[in-house]
Amino acid sequence: MSSSMLFNVTMVIYMVSTCIFFAFLASRNKAVGLTGTYAALFGFLVQTAAIGLRWKESYDQGHGHAPLSNLFESVVFFSWTIVLIFLIIDFKYKYRAIGFFVIPFALFGMAWAQLGLDSGIEPLVPALQSNWLMYHVITCFLGYAAFAVACGISIMYLIRESMEKGGADVQAGGLLSMFPSIRILDDLNYKAIMIGFPLLSLGIITGAAWANYAWGTYWSWDPKETWSLIVWFVYAAFLHARITRGWVGRRAAILSVIGFAATIFCYLGVNLFLSGLHSYGK
Amino acid sequence: MTTTNKRGFAQEVWDFFCSLKLSIFLLIGLALVSIIGTVIQQGPQREYLATLSETKIRLYSALGFFDMYHSWWFILLLYLLTLNLICCSIKRLPRVWKVVSEPVLVMDDNFEKSLANVKDLKLKGSKEELKERMASFLRAEFAAPVITESNGEYHLFAQKSPWCRLGVYVVHLSIIVIFIGALIGSFAGYKAYTNIPEGGAVSQVQTQSGKMIPLGFEVRCEKFSVSYYDTGAPKEFKSVLTVLENGKPVPGFQSRPIIVNDPLTYKGITFYQSSFGQSDEGSLYHITVRDRKGGAPVKLNARQGERVALPGGAFLSVMEATMDVRPFMRGFDGPGAQVEFTPAGGNPQPFVILSDKYESFNAQHGGDLLITFDGMDQKFYTGLQVAHDPGVWVVWFGCFLMVLGICMAFFMSHKRVWARVTDSGVTLGGSASKNPAGFEICFDDLVEKIGKA
């Protein structure tokens, strides 16, 4: 058995989980929702095993490094962290409908990694040979994942709000009836960002510490650094908007979606469109 | 009239700088303008400038877009943000400080109505007994209470982690501390660069702005080496450095290897492995030439580009060489050279020669001669980033404060419980600064335990 096979299994399970969550919205049957969560949990465990196996495979090849070093590995890890944060929020608050808006992010990540990216295990280039790599990548991606969950929740908020405004009767049934109320969605959005913001801050700080250790400058306005700061500004604005009248609810949800778009640009766009120090070993 | 107007204006300015709307505007504004510098090359290269039109270059320079993050308007935005968060903190901190330092000790009727969690408990016993019971109960289950007697009733007040209300201000302070650290670094520190050839030493380095800075000591590069993985990807860049004071090696700083991610620091100045190259002095290449028809092999030495006469009237020059061909040729290893071979009376032919391990490969060229590349004495120079930043610890202290403040502000809650004890029983009230649902569970739990106690 290879890690690649297990990653394929993971991808299929996330697809199944997404379908079950859709069935939950359609059927409004609580047991179906729970099944969706269990499917996501099972996929998460398989993916954890796959990441562990890939780590071992790198040792078998004589390189021996944590699977966090290239684009393939980072996309896989991103999808893992998204499911992790989703499961934490799901077990704590039990609003299963969120799964339909979050697991697809993880599914998309796995599908892209497995179908479109080079999955070869490469040895670490000198710049990445540092323990800071682990601290930096783990904190950043946990932060990104929390923002992904917040974005899914905000999309739910915007859908529900606009349908309620359009006069849809929420109680009468339909897909919306399984959505949490907009007040709860607003609160969950805030809670997810409260997880993400400290982690992003830590990610930026560990990145700065590493840059200072490796190059002697903790901040050099490299495009990746700048974009991470842009993301930080957006979510800082979000947090201040929470305590300002007129900025709760719809505007907060829009800020959260914009924040995640900036996050994705920081993660991928910078590498695809701009140049800089984070090349993912090409 | 004028005085009130003046006060009114001062008040307006003050309110402007205290407003959260300004914070949101500045944060979003900073996020938006920061994008510019990631799209337009900073400190642009000539090649990049050539792709821009004349008007664009003039416009971008006028707006400071080529060094955007140090332009006056970007710095101004950062100062405005700092001013804004200082004003916000000055306005709000005293109120919060009062909640922390002068807690409401007595829960009267009005205050009771403002609390989300209130419970009346009918308990047997005199109020003295009940007071003692409640005091030891709170001490055991929540926090040590302060007891006040008022209007013939006993009031108990207990709280947990009141200082977490200060978390927000710790974060605000941390940003100011980080800015101070950055300012110290930019005024008292420098970033520089230096190339040292193997065997050579430097006593001064050049900053980004071109200024030469004396180190106060010497750094000698004993050796530089680079190694590769089988795949051809670089594995390690290593310089061996020695620090010299008055021409003598400093104990503990002799032949210290430094690699990427493992720099050398001496007297607050840090040297980072950054780049490398072939030293100007050039390498000495070793070549063996043997006549295919027989005869003893001839060993030759050549410098780069030098035309060396071969037996039989041919010439050879080495254009480029490496000690490890793996990055360039899959399936081969060892030394290799790109050479130009000119047979007697013929035209120059470029080809590659490898070590004697690949004899059949080498036999493809050279006419009557079999030419092998034995290796080279190459001299590298090492490129070192040099940094001196006395502000960096201030920045790390700021970062520490930021993480601490965020944890206080996000993950901790100021929980308060009041108990009013009368002869007919106890009224319990409670509130928390965060997570009301979570506190409700905690409060109900307390109520249940009193019932059992």
Automatic annotation (TrEMBL), chain A:
Membrane topology: Multi-pass membrane protein
Transmembrane segments: 6-26, 38-55, 67-88, 95-113, 133-159, 192-215, 227-245, 252-274
Xref: InterPro entries: Cyt_c_assembly (IPR002541), Cyt_c_biogenesis_CcmC (IPR003557), Cyt_c_biogenesis_CcsA (IPR017562), Cyt_c_biogenesis_CcsA/CcmC (IPR045062)
Locations listed in the record: Membrane
Keywords: Cytochrome c-type biogenesis, Membrane, Thylakoid, Transmembrane, Transmembrane helix
Family: Belongs to the CcmC/CycZ/HelC family.
Protein name: Heme exporter protein C
Automatic annotation (TrEMBL), chain B:
Pfam families on file: ResB (PF05140)
Domain ResB-like: 20-342, 348-443
Location of this chain's protein in the cell: Membrane
InterPro entries listed in its UniProt record: Cyt_c_bgen_Ccs1/CcsB/ResB (IPR023494), ResB-like_domain (IPR007816)
Keywords assigned by UniProt, alphabetized: Cytochrome c-type biogenesis, Membrane, Transmembrane, Transmembrane helix
Membrane disposition: Multi-pass membrane protein
Transmembrane parts of this sequence: 20-40, 71-90, 166-190, 393-412
Main localization (coarse): membrane
Protein name: Cytochrome c biogenesis protein ResB
Species in which this protein is naturally found: Geomonas anaerohicana
